[in-house]
Structures are given as C-alpha cells and as structure tokens.
Design goal:
Blueprint (H helix, E strand, L loop, with lengths): L3 H17 L77 E2 L1 E6 L3 E3 L8 E8 L7 E9 L10 E4 L1 E4 L2 E7 L12 E10 L5 E5 L7 E3 L15
Parallel strand pairs: 3-11
Antiparallel strand pairs: 1-10, 2-4, 4-8, 5-6, 5-9, 7-8, 9-10, 9-11
C-alpha cells in the first residue's frame, strides 16, 4: 500500500499536463542584468597614421605606355676632339715681341726665288701703336738655311707709309743681301720704328719659319725648234 501511494500522486500530476498539451503555461525566466564594463581608451603619444587608400588605374586595351630608353654611354667610342687652330698664312699671330707695334702681317707664306717663277713677291705690313712719334719704319730681312744654322746678313729696307700708322713693303729675294748663296731657305724678318731723328722707339722680335723661299725651276716653253711634226 505504501508503494502504490507515490505512484498515484505522480499520475495525478501527469494527467492534467498531458490534457493541456501545447497550451500548458511554461514559466518564463527573467534574465538577470549583466554588468558591462566599458573601457575608455587612454590618450597615447603615438600619432594616428591615416589609412592609405589606393585608386585603381584602368588598363587601356591597345594603348602602349611610353617607356623611357636609358642612356647608354659607350666608353670605347673615342671622344671627338676639335682640330687644332691653324693661323691663316695672311696673318701672323703675335707670338714674338711686339714692342711699339699692333700687328705685323705677310700676304703669303711661300714665294719663289726671283725671278722666273710666281709668286716671287710678298707684301709685309705693319701698324705702329703710336703714329704721332714715329718717323720711319724699317724692315730687316735675311735668309736662313732650312737645315743648318747658316744665315745671310740683314738687309735694311725702309717701308712705305699708307696712313693711320700703317706701313707696307713688297719684298722679293733679289732685294736681299747674299741672294746668290741661297736657293731654298727661310726668310726671317723684323720690324723697327724710329723717330724722324733716327731714335729707335719700337722693335718686334724676329719672325722665324713663317716665310719660305722655294727654288725656282722654270718650265721650258715649247718653241718651233723642239716641236716635231
């Protein structure tokens, strides 16, 4: 009897629950309030770096992007050099003493021994730096061997004034001393200026290896005597 009593009590509880089915009230549990701790960020000395954004560039089909061609230097290619400056034969650079003169020029750098071949005359020009005090300008010229130290005596020739301090003279080998002893040689020259009284006031250095005299070998002209039929 004691064992049947608990069974009956359980049956009494289960029968009403089964009769109600899904409409039986289910007790609702109220959630307990959860305490949330909010963390406040502390200031920091590290600067905030902005987030970099990238913009995509559209690729154009059929379009070629220009590419720069690198400059290639060929170290084996010889560097172009300028040709040496060769003074004109009509002008002699003042590489010698020019005391009392502005310039000295010659019209040619080669003449033939006079006479029989041309050109055999060279014009020598000189301009003094102070024409008020100059009375005369003298040309000194001599022969000088091409290979040896042998030279002739100096020939003294007055130059002709043209005005504005300019003096000229047309020189040929037959006007110089000891012309018979030289066939091919240098003609060295020097210019001297003096006052009317003959006092020297200007003198150039000696111009060497600027003017050459060549041997004249005339070509015989055909005559009726040596023309064969």
């Amino acid at each position: 009897m004691k064992k049947i009593l608990p069974f009956l009590l359980l049956l009494i509880v289960l029968v009403p629950a089964c009769s109600l089915g899904p409409f039986a009230a289910v007790p609702t549990q109220t959630p307990e309030a959860t305490q949330t701790d909010t963390v406040t960020p502390q200031p920091t000395a590290t600067p905030v770096t902005p987030t970099q954004t990238f913009t995509l560039t559209p690729t154009l089909i059929g379009f070629k992007t220009a590419t720069s061609t690198p400059l290639i230097i060929d170290t084996n290619t010889p560097t172009a050099t300028l040709p040496p400056v060769i003074p004109s034969p009509l002008f002699i650079a003042p590489t010698v003493l020019m005391d009392g003169f502005i310039y000295v020029t010659v019209s040619l750098d080669e003449i033939y021994k006079a006479k029989g071949c041309e050109p055999s005359v060279v014009r020598v020009s000189a301009q003094v730096s102070s024409m008020n005090s100059v009375g005369y300008v003298l040309l000194f010229a001599r022969f000088k061997s091409l290979k040896a130290e042998r030279a002739s005596k100096w020939t003294n020739i007055p130059m002709t004034p043209l005005g504005a301090g300019t003096f000229v003279y047309d020189l040929s080998s037959d006007q110089m001393l000891e012309d018979a002893y030289f066939e091919t040689s240098w003609i060295e020259y020097q210019i001297v200026s003096t006052t009317v009284a003959g006092k020297e006031i200007g003198r150039t250095g000696i111009f060497k290896e600027r003017l050459k005299m060549l041997q004249c070998v005339p070509t015989p002209s055909p005559t009726s005597a040596n023309v064969k039929p």
